[in-house]
Amino acid sequence: GSVVASYPYDDSPTHRPTGVYSKSADDEVFKYLAKAYASHHPIMRTGKPNCPGEEGETFPDGITNGAQWYDVEGGMQDYNYVWANCFEITLELSCCKYPLTAELPKEWENNRESLLAFIEKV
């Protein structure tokens, strides 16, 4: 896990594991939507999730192009964009894939304003 808003494409023509910006035709729209979410999240907006084992990982403005972060062939957000014309971003909300129940109220507080800002854009 991490704390970042990721946008298409997740796959790249070269299939290099990381570092390839894979721009979609709607790249600016995706960046706008990802920033709308990230800019209201207290951790995501810093671009420094500080996840254990990945302390040096950074994401400018709290967002990333999926393939630039890591290449995923056959991912759902790419499939939905290409085949169903759905504009989808992926939200990584926690360093931990399965946070403890006691941590959920804090996760809600971290994400409430982001969710509202994102809904307003829709």
Report what the structure shows.
InterPro entries: Peptidase_M14, Peptidase_M14_domain. Keywords: Carboxypeptidase, Hydrolase, Protease. The active site is at 92 (proton donor/acceptor). It is a single chain. Helices cover 35% and strands 11% of the residues. The protein has one domain (4-120): Aminopeptidase (3-Layer(aba) Sandwich). Helix 1 (27-38) crosses helix 4. Strand 1, helix 1 (27-38) and strand 2 (63-65) form a beta-alpha-beta unit. It has 122 residues and is an alpha+beta fold. The protein has a 3-stranded mixed beta sheet with strand order 2-1-3. It has helices at 27-38, 66-69, 76-84, 104-121; strands spanning 2-7, 63-65, 90-94.
Topology (elements, then pairings):
Elements: E1 2-7, H1 27-38, E2 63-65, H2 66-69, H3 76-84, E3 90-94, H4 104-121
Helix pairs in contact: 1-4
Domain Peptidase M14: 1-122
Family: Belongs to the peptidase M14 family.
InterPro entries: Peptidase_M14, Peptidase_M14_domain
